[in-house]
Design a protein that fits this description.
Rossmann fold, 5-stranded mixed sheet, globular
């Protein structure tokens, strides 16, 4: 089993990723990558950095799935990218864990 890597995103600079970061660290994340931008933007440098950093067997953790994608299609594309690299997905709120799938 690899490492748990967290991903937190907020839509505006007025919001704070601290709450998400705390929950991800409590879930075992050794490192948390963040983005502060609208869900409408396709630019997610923090997510891109996480995917580049992650290794086969690692798990990408999010507090909620809506932090990872703004639409079902975008979310599925991201999940397929992760699966192709051997990276599992863990969503704390939805209790989804693909590491055992």
């Amino acid at each position: 089993m690899g490492d748990i890597l967290g991903y937190a995103r907020v839509s505006t600079g007025d919001q704070d990723v601290a709450g998400q970061t705390m929950r991800l660290e409590e879930a075992g994340a050794i490192k948390v990558f963040t983005d502060v931008m609208s869900g409408k933007s396709m630019e997610r440098p923090g997510l891109a950095e996480l995917i580049a950093y992650a290794r086969k067997g690692d798990t990408l953790a999010v507090v909620r799935l809506d932090r990872l994608g703004r639409s079902l299609a975008e979310l599925l594309t991201t999940v397929e990218t992760l699966r192709g690299q051997g990276i599992a997905l863990l969503s704390l709120e939805e209790k989804i864990d693909t590491s055992s799938a």
